Amino acid sequence: MRNEGITVTEPMEDRQGQALELTGAEGPGRKLYIETYGCQMNFSDSGIVASVLGAEGFSTTTEMEEADVALVNTCSIRDNAEKRIRGRLDVLRLAKRNRPKMVIGVMGCMAERLKTRLLEEEKLVDIVVGPDSYRDLPNLVREATSGQQAVNVLLSREETYADISPVRLGGNGVSAFISITRGCDNMCSFCVVPFTRGRERSRNPGSIVEEARQLFKKGYREVTLLGQNVDSYLWGGGGWKKDILARNDLSDTVNFAELLVTVAKVDPDLRVRFSTSHPKDMDDDVLHAMAKYENICSYIHLPVQSGSTRLLGLMNRGYTREWYLERIRKIRETVPDCGISTDIITGFCTETKEDHKDTLGLMGEVGYDSAYMFKYSERPATAAARNMEDDVPEDLKGTRLAEVISLQNSMSLASNEQDMGKVHRVLVEGESKRSAEKLQGRNPQNKVVVFPKKDHRKGDYVNVLVDDCTSATLLGVAVSDKTSEVSVLEKKNDS
Ligand code: SAM
Ligand code: SF4
Q1: Which end of the chain has fewer surrounding CB within 10 Å, N or C?
Q2: Is residue 156 classed as helix, strand or coil in its secondary structure?
Q3: How far is the CA of 278 from the centre of ligand 2 (A)?
Q4: Taking the model in full, what pTM does it have?
Q5: Nearest ligand for residue 193 CA
Q6: Is residue 193 within 6 Å of ligand 2 at its C-beta?
Q7: CB 46 less than 6 A from any atom of ligand 2
């Protein structure tokens, strides 16, 4: 066992800024280059954009120098994310000197916030396109190619891209994201998402299930249902959730637990995951569905943000510390083998030593398997920026973050040590990053498991006996299928 101190502090860290390529889409057509930053939603959106422009004859490339259109899919969630992206735009601008006809565009969350600055003041880009306007990209590219500035940052009441089958860019061919909601109505006081991505809308369940079915047919064995708050999913014929809730009769609606079960029934060999769950909305029906269907993975990402009820109030999260801990108790009771991870912010406005201690205490009480941990970063236009003072000094935010990370590293290692000596059902995602002789995949609890390749292949389910670990990875050997009978991680399936 080794504590290598490698707790990941950013989601999708290993894919940030990756230029994504659709294999098999090489061709004589114009070339599209997309760099993606931010959350899983953004990676999923890049696939939608590749699909929209693919229909116009574009193929994808990972070489910026050969691009006709270069897009950066941006993230505004923290100031450092924006800074990093601005650096990349400078690089693209330089590349344009050698390739003057290349069209440069900014898409995603920074589009609305920074459109005037990027287009007019700094003249950094030719196209600015917001998250709800990707269908307009062919027009915007035409406008930009003819030398005009092209902008569409309108946020929509209806758009969910339900009918667009996203191109699976740069994926492993085994696991895929399916977007089920867009936008967010929660207005957490620190968060810019409701401003950049608009109001919450749910996608037609028929189109979600069909996408899962098609993915399974193509050989995919895992789908992750994506939304800022998946538990809030509510299909009522389209449009904003707030308008659906205003109706008197909700009898013909579909909620998240119902959707989850329908997707799980596509095939018992298709694993189903979901992200992100919101503690105020995660209800028992979802937990019962997880307990009942073996292919719904025993894993919940349940961001707490802070362990202090006072700060949770200021953050407008809609729950208290006690409510959160009760949700955890219910998860453990209903899905005993459930892996649990979280998001934590240190140094939010007015955070005291006691608030910070409450966070560390809550982390210890829950015993998270992993966590994404951040320093608070004030975002313009949010309620916190308008009404509260960002008064915790940067170095103190950093000290507290280091304490949170250090605690999480030791808890992740302890959690992994507990998995040693057990057999885990692993869906193989490909070769291990460190050795071509080994494969890696994940167990239902979302832990990465590495083991010798032998005859096993990508897309296989393999039972692996774990005999070693780091704080980030389980290590083991494949055992015969018979051994799965002794797996402590098996659940009953209703089949
Ligand atoms: N919708 C999800 C939820 O509410 O749990 C999370 C969405 S957000 C993309 C991912 C995480 O970024 C949040 O859970 C929060 O921890 C972090 N985050 C959001 N705004 C932030 C800010 N202003 N400063 C630091 N971290 C922030
Ligand atoms: Fe942001 Fe809160 Fe919505 Fe998550 S739930 S996206 S943190 S406003």
Answers
A1: C
A2: coil
A3: 9
A4: 0.91
A5: 2
A6: yes
A7: no
